[in-house]
Design brief:
DNA-binding, homodimer, mainly alpha, 2 domains, globular, Arc Repressor Mutant, subunit A, 11% strand
DNA sequence: CAAAATTATATTGTGCACAATATAAAATCA
DNA sequence: TGATTTTATATTGTGCACAATATAATTTTG
């Protein structure tokens, strides 16, 4: 009799599955990253900076923002915290004072050596076939692409 | 020469794919839910309350917490906001004053009628085969279960 | 029954996300 | 060139998440 829309059942919402799993995964990372003194978003920023590499120009805030889909409202305070911990420096670019360039310090690069263990540590404590994770990752990335293509405008 | 661990590449992190897609999906919900005057977490709480139903005992804060994997630190202020908007009432249970019972108001139930359109609206504006989403949802839920089984203790 | 332990919710404090706005510098245009 | 527009980052304010702790009520124990 009641309007028992199965459409609104929590377990039928892909958004909830995504939300719950994302938080569960983040929770798994938390103690591991705590050993590095990083939060999860800070870890992602470090991954982006490590990936940007030491050669070429230092990354701009907006480079990291584009990579992680984060704006300056999120990144500025986060980067200041990483700077305070001595992992990177933030310097205005002389030729264009609007731009802030991010350079990893020695400590920032050293941290990468510790971080190398993180992915394996996570996957190992998981009892899931690795190829299952690869498949899932591909599917997640594929859907993200769909959303981002049609997203900004539509 | 450089320590080019592909393990640390951002695009190889399943955690990043999950993080990015979750935020992209949430962003899709945002304008739709704004019409209902709800944030995304508030929507999930309402889904849980609607699902709990009008019969039987009113939901406890911890019931919703168990369903959504959220603690009182998150739920208490969120529920107060929903109460201020007149969608629910919070009442201490007489027989056990520790417990707070959550009852949807008329407005809370009426909102469900509007919310009925939300899932279809989201899926339709997505150009992805529905069965692909069903498969993904199952996989996400399956992995969540794995994490929660081994998680709390290990 | 009284003391201790447990339970349910609330509070406090930190760190994201994100919208909206501000600031300042550079690029474009009239 | 001077005014306008655009661009890059920063700031402000709100609302989660989550850890740690507080509070108060119930249950368990000695």
């Amino acid at each position: 009799m009641n309007g028992d829309d199965q459409m609104l059942a929590l377990d039928n919402q892909i958004c909830f599955a995504l939300y719950a799993l994302n938080r569960a995964v983040t929770a798994r990372y938390r103690p591991v990253l705590a050993e590095l003194g990083l939060t999860y978003p800070q870890y992602l920023v470090m991954l982006a900076l490590w990936e940007h590499g030491p050669g070429g120009e230092a990354a701009r805030v907006s480079d990291i923002g584009a990579r992680l889909r984060l704006d300056s409202g999120t990144l500025t305070p986060l980067l200041k915290r990483l700077e305070e911990r001595g992992l990177l420096t933030r310097r205005r670019q002389a030729s264009d004072e609007r731009v802030v360039r991010l350079s990893l310090t020695e400590a920032g690069w050293r941290l990468r050596e510790q971080a190398r263990e993180v992915p394996m540590q996570l996957v190992c404590g998981l009892d899931v076939a690795p190829e299952r994770l690869v498949t899932l990752r591909q599917e997640l990335r594929s859907l993200l692409e769909v959303l981002e293509r049609s997203g900004p405008s539509d």
